[in-house]
Amino acid sequence: MSEEPWREILIDVEPRGKEFRLGLERDATVSDILGVVRDRCKEEGVELEKWAKSAVGEDYQFVLLRKAEGNAVLAPGMMLGEVDPEIVSNEKFKLGAQPVVGGLPPNIFNRRIDVLIEDFYRTSLAEVYQREGWTYQAPTREGRSWRHDLISVQVLDAHPDGAYRTVRVRLTGVPGVVELNGGSPQVGWEHTYEFALPRGYPSDLKVDIVNRTPLVHPRFRGKGKNACYNVNGEVDRILVDLIYNTMLRPDLVRPPSLYPDEDWGVHRSSMQWYIETGPKQVYQHLQGALRERQSGQKASSRVTLLDSSVRRVHGKVRIVGD
Questions:
Q1: Would the CA dihedral through 49, 55, 58, 60 be positive or negative?
Q2: Is the dihedral of CA 211, 215, 220, 223 positive or negative?
Q3: How sure is the predictor about 229, in pLDDT bands with cuts at 50, 70 and 90?
Q4: Which of 114, 178, 193, 256 satisfies CB 3.0 to 4.6 Å to 214 for a cystine?
Q5: 7-101 domain in CATH 3.30.497.10?
């Protein structure tokens, strides 16, 4: 995001009890805003999902309500710069929830997934390359496949009505531990995951992850099995989290040594190794390996690839006050 946002707006979040002030780029979408709001509320312990279900029932989606236009509903895929009448600075909005009756029509469902995948490449991944000083090349797309040197995405099949279902993600330049080998971890660079999109998406955001290649991870059951981990978020969030999980970032692995309320996952021996080696040390080692592979230089004190400072994936929206 540029230094000066295109607009600053206020979002009233009822279950939080106070507003957010957000800075927006012109091409930000309502989904970007909802993602930032959900992430911050989750950090603060605000139970948005519980609030939405109590308001409209089990099947719901979050929307943005425009107060100046009689609480007109702005749907998740809408681009803010195209809203009519044009949004003005300091305009007030409200987070809302509405029931979802049936699934999205297949063409809208698929277009939503396409946009989220493209936005991941255009913003989240491109920002990582920019921060590291690496040369970024956009993915090439052919049909339902996006190919990139670091992470490629392919839609494998569809629900009976044609809506996308199974998505395969191939990491071809991300380091992950594939074997402990008696205390001498072996690092691999190629990893494949798959996940199935529920037909009720986006109201149903619970997506199970399956790793198709070997991976040492305390919360992944093993090759071909569902992980003891799911991403409660949209597709762009899933793609980012898969990179983070492969590199064993501590706040996703959540070892009980750092997070006392967490369990030991599904592989106690893997968690034991992770804790004894040092979660931060493991992660930093894999960061350094990736940096060397990408730039041919040894790790430095620069902003790291998966640093907490680039954790949010909604690059077109930022919180500027709350």
A1: negative
A2: positive
A3: low
A4: 178
A5: no
DSSP letter assigned to residue 310 = G
Domain boundaries, the chain: 7-101, 106-310
Annotate 132-195 with three-state secondary structure: HCCCCCCCEEECCEEECCCEEEEECCECCCCCECEEEEEECCCCEEEECCCCCCEEECCEEEEE
Token output for 60: 């719901």
What does residue 91 show for φ and ψ, rounded to 5 degrees? Answer: -70, 150
Q: Note the pTM of the prediction, 2 decimals.
A: 0.65
Q: Which residues contact 252 (CB under 8 A, 6 or more apart)?
A: 229, 241, 244, 245
182, pLDDT greater than 90: no
Here the tokens at position 29 are: 């979408």
Question: Tens digits of per-residue pLDDT, 122-166?
Answer: 988 998 888 878 889 999 999 999 999 999 999 999 988 899 999
106-310 — its CATH code? Answer: 3.10.110
- DSSP codes of every residue in 48-106: HHHHHHHHH-SSEEEEEEEGGGTSEEE-TT-BGGG-SSPP-TTEEEEEEEEE--SPPPH
In sequence order, which residues have a C-beta less than 8 Å from that of residue 171 and are 6 or more positions away? Answer: 150, 151, 189, 190, 191, 192, 193, 242, 243, 246
**In 3-state terms, the chain is what percent helix, strand and coil (to 5)?**
35, 25, 40
Q: Are 108 and 115 in contact (CB under 8 A)?
A: no
Chain centre distance of CA 139: 18
Query: Across the chain, what does the average pLDDT equal?
Result: 84
Question: pLDDT of 6-54, one tens digit each?
Answer: 999 999 999 999 999 999 988 788 878 988 898 899 889 999 989 998 9
Strands 206-211 and 226-232 come out as antiparallel
Cα–Cα dist 192/294, whole Å: 20
SS3 298: coil
Q: Indicate if 106-310 has the same CATH topology as 7-101.
A: no
Encoded tokens for 230: 């799911």
Measure the CA dihedral 105/111/113/116, to 10°: -140
